[in-house]
Structures are given as structure tokens and as C-alpha cells.
Amino acid sequence: MTGGNTLFQELQHQDRDHVWHPYAASPPDSEIYPVVSAEGVRLTLADGRQLIDGMASWWCAIHGYNHPLLNRAVEEQLGKMSHVMFGGLTHPAAVKLARLLVKLTPEPLSRVFFSDSGSVSVEVALKMAIQFWQASGKADKQKIVALRSGYHGDTFGAMSVCDPVTGMHHLFGDVLSKQHFVTAPKCPFDGNCPESDMAEMADLLSLHHQEIAAVIVEPVVQGAGGMRFYSPDYLRKLRALCDAFDVLLIFDEIATGFGRTGKLFALEHAEVTPDILCLGKALTGGYMTLAATLCSDHIAEVINSSEAGAFMHGPTFMANPLACATAIASIELLLSQPWTRTVQRLNLQLEQGLSPARKLPGVSDVRTLGAIGVIELREPVNMASIQPMFVERGVWIRPFGKLVYTMPPYIINEQDLAGLTAAMVEVVAAL
User: Fold this and answer.
1) 319: phi > 0 → left, psi -120 to 50 → alpha, else beta; which?
2) I want to staple 219 with a disulfide (CB 3.0 to 4.6 A). Which of 34, 266, 269, 293 is the partner?
3) Which residues are annotated as a binding site for pyridoxal 5'-phosphate?
4) Which residues are annotated as a binding site?
5) pTM (predicted TM-score)
6) What is the pLDDT of residues 338-367, one digit of tens each?
7) Range of the domain at 242
8) Residues belonging to the active site
9) Count of the separate structural domains present in the chain
């Protein structure tokens, strides 16, 4: 253990000297924990301690870590080629993955544009919408409508449609494109959406539809903007409004895709199809970065008729063969299992395990949906003090703002999930 402690400390010190972590000072003002291996749902730290991962590596490692089937997919593709440019070339893994995504998503989504990350898939969606209207002879339609409390990524276009007040990007407000924002729906997940929840959106589209290219929303679950759940009925009424005012509808399913809400895609709760769909995170089972933006043949045909004659975007690592092969294996693995029953089991246990937190004085809400469990506090947490409290209990939970939440890998067993929820309640009680 002495050797492990030495390695742990060495990695920490070297990290502090050179590495800049997300949403953190450099050097960091809270402890960083070096991970040297991962297996199943457990992360092994450099000093030998093991943590049950309640975050699924920011919601993407749905099959856990070091899965033999996903490992094999990477190894087999690596033996053929690790990468090839996608300009003018294609490869079997990209073609197969595109066909699979088209099969799994609703009509008329039939065209797949691959990119490197969720944020970039949102950039692609926004550019796709704007270029569509330019090619349609309506070049004034350049603005985007988004919901408050929404989050869509960290690149400039994506930041422009994140909540400009409560979001993480207000420091860049003066340089971002100015978009339209409406109040997030208040209707609960299991209720209908009253007209009062739609009035602001309806008024905005009525007044400004000539300049609006698209509305972008996270269907049913607003993720990093607050872990808020809302009624699928809102999506049905939003679809009707977009159709009425000739505005495209974009669904950002980067966080919700591939079973997290209890449906393969969150849009299935409402039985609504967007014009453009963004996927990412769990697409590769958390093995490597890959995202996809889907649209209809109609949108592609209109863009093709534009002055450019093509969609003007092209990431260097677009449709990386290793990532595509892994995504195919991850999706096939998910679909080969009774994943809906698994997510239902996780939801039931999350509800039971987190319900004691409802009685704690500092808690404003406890909510669950699918494989998502949230304790919302009345005051923001202090990350420097709360993170070690979870590590001491042998779990990895990464709160933010007022939220202590978990999105565990689907493979987590009842005992480990009970340990996660118990630790969440204990730490919140200790606050």
C-alpha cells in the first residue's frame, strides 16, 4: 500500500503541475483522485481504493468498464485500421452504424452526420438548420429558440443556446450569438402540459418566426442545466407550434439516448419526431468520443440545392472507425438484453433508496426517472468538502450546484446501487 500511496501522490502532484481539469481552477482547488484501472462499476485508485461509480463517466458508460464485447470490437477494428479520413472515403463500420441508427430512430430521420462529441453534434444541428433556410430562400431565419435551464455543450454555438443566466457560460454572454429563450416547462413528467406552459413559446414564434431557424430542446430531461423532468405532452404541443410557424425542431438526446429515461430515446415518451436529432455520450458505451446528428432526406436535399452544394462542416476524425465499431457493439449489446426491465429495476431502487432524503431539512426535492436519481438541495454544495465525503464512503458521486445525483451504469447490481443511494443520503444528511 505504501507503493500505492506513493504513486497516488506522485500522480496528484504531477497533475497539479500540468493538467487543467473541466470546470476547475488550475491547479485545482479541490482534491483530484488518480484512477489506474476500472472494471464493471468500480474505479480503482492509484492507492488501491475502489469506488463504485455512480456517474457512468458523465452518463455514458452504460455497460460499465472493461467489457469483453466492447474490448473485442476495439481490438478487431484496430487490427484493420484505426482511422481513415471521411472526405471522399467511407468504411464498413460507419455505414453499418448509420444504418443501425436510422433503423432505431423514427421516420423520416434517414441521414446521419458523424462528429467528435456532443457539443459538436449540436453545432452541426444549428448549422444544418441555418443552412437549410438559406437554401430555402429564407436567409433571415438565423436565430435559435432554447429553453431556460437548458444545457447543450461548451462550444460557441452550443453555448449560445445554453441558459444565459443560470448556465455555466454567462461569462461569454457578450461574445455569443444572441438567441431567444423561453421559460422551461413546469408541467411534471406524469402530467399534461397546460396552455400556460406553451403561451410564451407560442407568442415568441408568432412574433419572430421570420427570423427563427429552429427550436432546440432536451426532450423530457434537462440535464446539466438542472436535472429537471417535464411532461412529454410539452413536446407534442411544441411540435405542433413549430409546424404551424415553419420552424425546425431539434432534439438534443446526447444525455437521454440509449435507454437512460426508460425509453431507447426520450422522444418515444411523446411519440414525437424532431427534424434534427443529436446523439452522443452512451453512443459508444463510454469507450471513446463519438456523436451523430440525424436529419431527414428533405433537409439534406434542400441543403444540397444551396449555393455551396454541400453541408459545410467536416471534422478531421469524423466517423472514426474505432469509435463506430465500438458504437455498433455497444448498441447491439444493449438491444440483446432486457434493458427496459433493467432500467425499471434501477428506477424502483433509486426511488426507494433516495426517498429518505425527502425528510432532510436541506432538501428541496427528490426525483427519479429511468436510471436517473436526483436529490436537489436548497443551497449549492461545496465541492472541495463534499467530494471527499463520497470517496470516504467508497463511491464516486460528482454533484454540481444544488444537485446530488446519480446516473449509474445499467449493469450495477442491487447491493452496489444500495451503497450508492445510502451514501448520497448520508452525505446530504451530514451537510
Assistant:
1) left
2) 266
3) 118-119, 252, 315-316
4) 58, 118-119, 151, 252, 281, 314-316, 398
5) 0.97
6) 999 999 999 999 999 999 999 999 999 999
7) 71-336
8) 23, 151, 252, 281
9) 2
